[in-house]
Design goal:
Rossmann fold, 4-stranded parallel sheet
Length: about 350
């Protein structure tokens, strides 16, 4: 009987110990933060990427942007999803794309080239969706930002400041006897208007007169080119999206009349322009991606100054120069980079 009593006593003590341990475990568990399975998953960001036209310099920005975000730790299909659209050089398409991105409430809209940036800014106005632009030559003139230092309009980005004075110096060095530079530009592209205004201001310093003809769309270009080529010694092209999309027409007609065409970036030189002071548009995309990463990590776009990209390098097309019997100036003999066609 005594043995039974001792065993019972031991069992009761064990039960008490186990009960106390259970209570302590419950208390400790209640003090720990509750884990929500959804909170443990990394956020997947949705980014609308709108490009105004399908030409190589803008393609380079797009590719640089995607690679740049990869370098920042944002992998497509993993923690970021891109919705990439191209407006094919049409303003109405750019507007529809931007409106679609806003309706889907994306985490970020990135717009490549001024017309797409303006369309996206209009569509996103009054929302909390940040806008990041690239290849906008004059974002203040385009009314995308209040100032380059303090954007304050829900947008910021990178500005491709064309080295227009270097370009004009290049034209004078290549063509010492030239007097008139022709410019073809699209009247509703504000970036082209800004470039033309600056180019005209520089011209007297280098003994040039600027002859400019404006066009409204692609159908205007052939006749405008014919008229322009009767009045000038050479042609200089900006980053006008409409003109770049129809650059083959300009170069073909100019070559027939033995009139040199200068580009504004290396892809235009690859297509047949004789030379250019060229910005690296792939690098422009990468720098834009670095800004995008900061926005996705929580920085406010309104407080991010516009990044100005103006560093350039001289490039030339040896075949185009030979066809037009244009010699390389001595001052470019060591710095020029020769490019081949695509």
């Amino acid at each position: 009987m005594k043995k039974i009593s001792e065993k019972l006593s031991r069992d009761l003590r064990l039960i008490k110990i186990l009960s106390l341990a259970t209570v302590l475990a419950l208390i400790l568990a209640s003090c720990l933060p509750t884990r929500n399975p959804q909170q443990t998953k990394e956020k997947v960001f949705r980014v609308g990427l709108t490009q105004y036209a399908p030409h190589p310099s803008l393609d380079n920005i797009r590719d640089g942007f995607i690679q740049g975000l990869e370098e920042e730790g944002f992998s497509d299909g993993e923690n970021i999803i891109f919705d990439i659209s191209n407006a094919d050089g049409k303003g109405e398409n750019a507007a529809l794309i931007a409106q679609n991105y806003v309706a889907k409430n994306y985490d970020l809209i990135t717009a490549i080239a001024t017309p797409s940036a303006m369309a996206a800014h209009c569509a996103a106005d009054g929302t909390d969706i940040p806008l990041l632009f690239s290849a906008v030559s004059d974002p203040v003139f385009a009314k995308l930002v209040e100032s380059l230092e303090v954007p304050a309009r829900g947008a910021s980005g990178t500005a491709d400041i064309l080295p227009l004075e270097k370009q004009m110096k290049m034209i004078r060095a290549f063509l010492p006897k030239a007097k008139k530079i022709g410019v073809l530009y699209t009247t509703n592209e504000v970036n082209s208007q800004s470039h033309l205004e600056s180019f005209r201001e520089l011209a007297p310093n280098y003994g040039f007169e600027i002859i400019a003809i404006g066009v409204n769309g692609p159908s205007d270009i052939p006749l405008a080119v014919d008229s322009l080529l009767t009045q000038v010694d050479c042609v200089n092209n900006f980053t006008d999206n409409n003109v770049v999309n129809n650059l083959d027409t300009l170069i073909e007609k100019a070559n027939e009349k033995k009139i040199p065409v200068f580009g504004s970036e290396e892809e235009q030189v690859r297509k047949g322009c004789i030379a250019s002071e060229s910005i690296d548009y792939f690098e422009l995309g990468r720098i834009t991606a670095q800004m995008a990463a900061r926005i996705l990590r929580g920085e406010k776009v309104d407080e991010m100054p516009v990044q100005l990209i103006s560093e350039s390098k001289p490039v030339a097309n040896a075949d185009a120069m030979a066809a037009l019997k244009v010699d390389l100036p001595a001052e470019y003999s060591e710095s020029i980079e020769y490019l081949t066609g695509n």
